[in-house]
Amino acid sequence: MNRRELLAGGIVGAAALALPSNVQAEQESNRKMHLGIVTYNVAKDWDLDTILRNCHDAGIEGVEFRTTHAHGVEPALDAGKRAEVRKKCADAGLLQTSLGSTCEFQSDDSAEVRRNVETCREFVLLAKDIGARGVKVRPNGLPKDKSIPLEKTLEQIGKALAECGQIGADHGVEIWMEVHGPTTQLVPNARKIMDFCGHKNVGVTWNSNNTDVNDAAHGSVKENVALLRPWIRCCHITELWSSYPYRELFTLLNQTGYDRFTLCEIGSPIKAEDGATFLKCYKGLWKELSR
Amino acid sequence: MKERATNRRDFLRGAALVGAALAAGPARAIEPIKRSGKPRLRLSLAAYSYRDYLQGKHEPRMDLLEFVDRCATYPLDGVELTEYYWPKPLTSEYLMQVKRKCYLNGLDITGSPMANVYTHPAGPEREKQIAITKAWVDTCAAMGAPTIRVFAGSLQPGQTLEQAQKNTIESLEEACAYAGTKGVLLALENHGGIVAEADSILTIVKAVKSEWCGINLDTGNFRTEDPYGDIARCAPYAVTCQVKTEVQPKGQAKQDADLKRVLQILKDAGYRGYVTLEYEAAEEPLKAVPRHLDQLAALL
To answer: Is B153 left (phi over 0), alpha (psi -120 to 50) or beta?
Structure first.
């Protein structure tokens, strides 16, 4: 049984036996969710060893390797390198890894959509080889042809996701659609995509967008979280010191038994030598807001 | 890849905060104070806690020498000797007597808060505020106090928040440039006025171009909807900390502070330094302070 299976099976406690003491202390909380990072952009310029060292030192439990960054975890890796990445991540005590692809499916060019599905397949195979739990994909707005009805585009994205979902299912890898892109990041639209998709291996990565916030409801995300909650399999979180209602979001996730990852995704890169300090403080604020 | 929308806070508040941030350069990510080793919290007591005795309003009257004697009977590592309670004029002899007594009682002088206003534009009043800061820096260097709590102040007549922040940043940079030559840190307190909320004090402290500037984190002063969240937002920048026994969330009555939670926030931020009890609650300080110190000592 690998780490992914341990986590998926709900026996994190067993995995925690091998974790650093600061991570073990974290398990004493009632909180079930975990904290990880997206390499975008905190670790954009860190190599794999630096990422793993800083995460270990700060008690960070998961990493999403966003494509094109300095870590080099890409579909171009050969079998030997993939095995090495898998071993390094396991040895570092990570509970979860995932891959941040930029596969997107809104184009009005069917060949372009096809290319993105095939790229997603490459990421799925990479994920399988390195022991990653999921591949993040996305919509990225609407087609250039403005005459295409919104519903048609949402359906197209959903159907492409279903295909990716089946590819993932064949290899034990989940597909997570980031709630992303102009118009497509609006939660009701993301929900429609999920309804069109209808594949059990496809969920969403909540993306903590400003558009999640309902100002008419006193700056709450409650309504929008409810629309997507059954599909949330990962969660990107940004600058916790901003006014996005993170305490409310974490409360909503805690109340509904969310036991997966929230991943730090911030706009500015952090110098490698400052990484552990930054991540420790980020985790400190995360702990207070998600208690 | 994420195309991050305009920060919602900036969007809501318009140009004010943005302007100050731009004046300090491009928006930066949080840059916490870098510390080695595990968190380490040590206990101090603010002389302000016994202000009514030190000001002769209540019996027993005491001066700073007697305050230090009393502190030596408590589970303390240090004392915070507020500027207000030093005799005026302050003689070198008295200063050294206090320093000697602290040392012989095994107590560090952890800081010496002063009162000031940094929101003035360039001109005579700002120069006066900088001058009193520099003078107190000299005194603190002589007594061996590593930090001075300073205030920002309130908006001056006709002033915008952006202007007040800019003036405070400029004043702090000038004062810190001098303080650094004496090895003294200036710690801006979240204390009403233009720094009543976490956003504003973070905007200022992150913009000050000096390693001799940080936050004096007062855990009772955020009268916001989420005081503990605001404490956590500021903790990575704290160079000293004043703990209050009460908090007052916005729209609510004062309530007992969850001291365990407060200290955990500091530990999670990697804080190494003094936690100074600054007692302001209604109960008689001579009874309440020792009890709270015992509680804090057990939690450290």
So the answer is: left
Q: Is A40 on the interface with B (CB under 8 A)?
A: yes
pTM of the model: 0.89
Query: What are the DSSP E strand ranges found in chain B?
Result: 40-46, 78-80, 108-111, 147-150, 185-189, 213-218, 238-243, 246-247, 255-256, 272-277
- Within a domain: residue B267? yes
Cβ <8 Å between B233 and A238? no
Asked if residue B24 belongs to a domain, the reply is no
Min Cα distance B8 → chain A (Å) is: 6
CATH number, domain of B100, equals 3.20.20.150
Q: How far apart, in whole angstroms, are the C-alpha atoms of residue A89 and residue A91?
A: 5
Q: Please name each of the domains of chain A with its CATH number.
A: 3-289 (3.20.20.150)
| Residue of A213, A240, A274 lying closest to B8 (CB–CB) | A213
Instruction: Name the residue in chain B with its Cα closest to that of A39.
Output: B1
Residue A260 in contact with residue A233, Cβ under 8 Å? Answer: yes
Does residue B131 lie within any of the structural domains? Answer: yes
* Neighboring chain B residues of A283 at a CB cutoff of 8 Å: 268
What is the ipTM metric for this complex? 0.86
pLDDT in tens, A193-244: 999 999 999 999 999 999 999 988 889 999 999 999 999 999 999 999 998 9
CB distance from A261 to chain B under 8 Å? no
Q: Which domain holds residue B169?
A: 37-299
With contacts defined as CB-CB under 8 Å, which chain A residues touch B4?
238, 267
Question: What Rg value do the Cα atoms of chain A yield, rounded?
Answer: 18
Number of structural domains in chain B? 1
On whether residue B92 sits in a domain, the answer given is: yes
- Average pLDDT on A186-198 reads 98
